[in-house]
Amino acid sequence: QMVETQFVLSFVHRFLEHRGATTYFAFCYPFSYTECQEMLAQLDGRFQECRHMSPSSPLDSVYYHRELLCHSLDKLRVDLLTVTSCHGMLEKREPRLDKLFPDTTTPRPRRFAGKRVFFLSSRVHPGETPSSFVFNGFLDFILREEDPRAQMLRRMFVFKLIPMLNPDGVVRGHYRTDSRGVNLNRQYLNPDAELHPAVYGAKAVLLYHHVHSRVLPGSPDWRAYVSPLGTSSLSARSSNRCGGGGAPSPEAALSELEKANNLRNAPGAWPAGTCFGPSRERRLPEAPAPGGKDQAAWILPSSHAAERRQEERRPPAPLPETILPRDSGLAYYVDLHGHASKRGCFMYGNSFSDENDQV
After folding, report:
1. Going from the N-terminus, what domains does the chain have, and what CATH number goes with each?
2. pLDDT, position 91
3. Which of 19, 70, 247, 252 could form an SS bridge with 197, CB 3.0 to 4.6 Å?
4. pLDDT below 50 — which residues of the chain?
5. What are phi and psi of 256, to 5 degrees?
């Protein structure tokens, strides 16, 4: 029935007469933390050769990387997945961020030139299980090796995916809160690394890519790339296979990345007054110099002295608030939820006064 615009569902259940039996009632079709970990373990096996990929790998290969972002308060895994193609792959890897990525045996994923980041997360409200089914459907789609839509999206973006932001609430059967009764979706303004590790980690990753994944002038447009081995701009067969089929043709002396970097280094590809190599970070013209050395410390690597020395040789990165939205390295940020009374699929987005901006 409807009571004050809310749906009320009533039912009668006769309990089993066996002593000690446990009966579970699910608010919606469940998707558990254990099922999520089993799904990710299967993907690890399916894409295990991705660990050995390099800038010389076939460009339309699926690049899949799973890592431990942090542990929850109940010591459960908060996983971060990286999915893209090998277009723009660089030798260097992303840095370790402060208080995150505790598993030092797993390297950080590669960095990619000319690609912005698409960030997708779900289950910050653990009882909203439809978010997991939408997440899993998207993950299945973006990992399809031969779907031309997925291939094009992997060329265009680096996908950063967090399947469960609140694993503690999922395991405990909570609807909106973590193990301390806190609604993590209200903690983004000032997350605490000790109290809200998953939100702290998600925000740190977002801010890092906002600054460091910007597409610089003269970057290659991977959407327009045509394979030197075929007439089609999208490969017709999967390239995530071990063994033959991936050998470059003899005339392809330069890799596509090298050609792209040569184009980026050509005269006129960079605005006047900028002095840096194609893999270095560019300070935006309107960005004021950071006031103090530690002002942007929250997005700089903290682990190794060598990494830090390497960072210090670069031009200083701009402060996040000085980067305009159109210049951000973050192309999209989608957080998946569910709803107790709305039906079908719907979106909440930023509110703009101008109708055209809203569209």
Report:
1. 33-216+325-357 (3.40.630.10)
2. 96
3. 70
4. 229-231, 236, 238, 242-253, 264-305
5. -60, -35
